[in-house]
Amino acid sequence: SVETMALGMGEGAFIFNPVEENQTVTLVGEVYQGTLTIDIPSGFGIVSSAVPQAGNMADWGYPAADGDVVYRFDNAAGAYITSTYEFGDWSAPLTVAVGEAVFSEKGAGATWTREFSVND
Fold first, then answer.
1. Model-level pTM?
2. Alpha carbons 105 and 69: distance in angstroms, whole number
């Protein structure tokens, strides 16, 4: 069966496949440009970059405060890679693939702002 789900800019989803066969997931959408903002809630949530780029979330200005934690699922290992923000730095790199979301655990909500243009 075909399932359809709409995700807004900066949102993410965790997809559970209960069967042994591989499943195809197709993502389509617009590439937004200009000043892009994502409201990140306090507590636990799923977030992704507003820009379709692979790279390091810290380099992109992810708004971190001491005690914040990001959980990235490593499919090959079948486990989460955890990075905690303490004393102005992350305990592990926050490298993500294009379209990949992470679990975010924040003590206080924040706004993640990025500038993007396909012409840059």
1. 0.82
2. 5
Whole-angstrom distance, CA of residue 51 vs CA of residue 36: 8
DSSP state of 11: B
3-state secondary structure of 1: coil
Measure Cα distances from 66 to 25, 26, 43, 106 in Å: 35, 36, 14, 9
Burial of 95 (0-12, 13-18, 19+ CB in 10 A): middle
Q: What is the pLDDT along the chain (120 residues), one digit of tens a residue?
A: 567 888 888 888 888 888 999 888 888 888 899 999 999 999 999 999 998 889 998 999 999 999 999 999 988 888 999 999 999 999 998 899 988 999 999 999 999 999 999 876
Which residues have CB under 8 Å from 106's CB, separation 6+?
Answer: 40, 41, 42, 43, 45, 65, 68
The C-alpha atoms of residue 25 and residue 11 are separated, in whole angstroms, by 16
